[in-house]
Amino acid sequence: MVNKIRKFSAPWSVWTYLTTIIIGLIVFAIIPYGIFTAISTEKVANDAAKAYTFLIGLIPLIFVLAVFFAPMKYTVTGSEVIINRLGPNILIPIESINNIRKIQRKEIGFLPLRLFGVGGFCGAYGLFWGSRLGLFRGYITNTKTLIFIKYQGNKKVLISPDRPQEFLNAAAQRKSDDSQNQQLN
Questions:
Q1: Closest CA to 91 of 56, 58, 21, 139
Q2: What is the pLDDT of residue 183?
């Protein structure tokens, strides 16, 4: 048994790059410019100026928090699949994985619904519902490299590592090693 740690990047698609750049420009350039312009014309009441100032600080903070939870990379260890983020990592024990496979975007279902999370800025991550998959958590940066993981009964996760076939092979090897170790005990 080789207990080798395998790391896979979370490459951004062109759509993720464009969405992140456009939203970043809106949040960090256009909105503050508009607010400062409105305040400087003195047509805005003092209370409104305070609210605008609060928004200037709040909106960038929300986007910094969004980056904190975006998937940065994926790691397969001897005992778990890890979704690495700047914030708390997501840990999926290898022995709890029931199903892991590559899927195509169309297998999620028509127009997946984002229930809670981010849908474009640094990727798509959070809680989603798709007509074919049902309820799932997504940590996706590129829909061309989707991996579906079902674990602990009916928990579902979609991720998008680079080199998806190598990711599947690494996870399958660790699952096989884990099964052999359980039989020896």
A1: 139
A2: 47
CA atoms of 89 and 67, how far apart (whole Å): 13
Number of domains in the chain: 1
29 or 178, which is more confident: 29
- Which pTM does this prediction carry? 0.79
What is the pLDDT confidence band of residue 84, given thresholds at 50, 70 and 90?
very high
How large is the average pLDDT for residues 76-98? Answer: 94
Give the DSSP letter string of the chain: -----EEEE-PPPHHHHHHHHHHHHIIIIIHHHHHHHHHHTT-S-HHHHHHHHHHHHHHHHHHHHHHHHSEEEEEE-SSEEEEEESSSPEEEEGGGEEEEEE--GGGT-SSPEEEEEEEETTEEEEEEEETTTEEEEEEES-TTS-EEEEETTTEEEEE--SSHHHHHHHHHHHHHHHHHHHHH-
Residue-range definition of the domain harbouring residue 23: 1-185
pLDDT (tens digit, 9 = 90+) per residue, 8-57?
Answer: 999 998 988 898 888 888 777 776 676 666 666 655 556 666 676 777 77
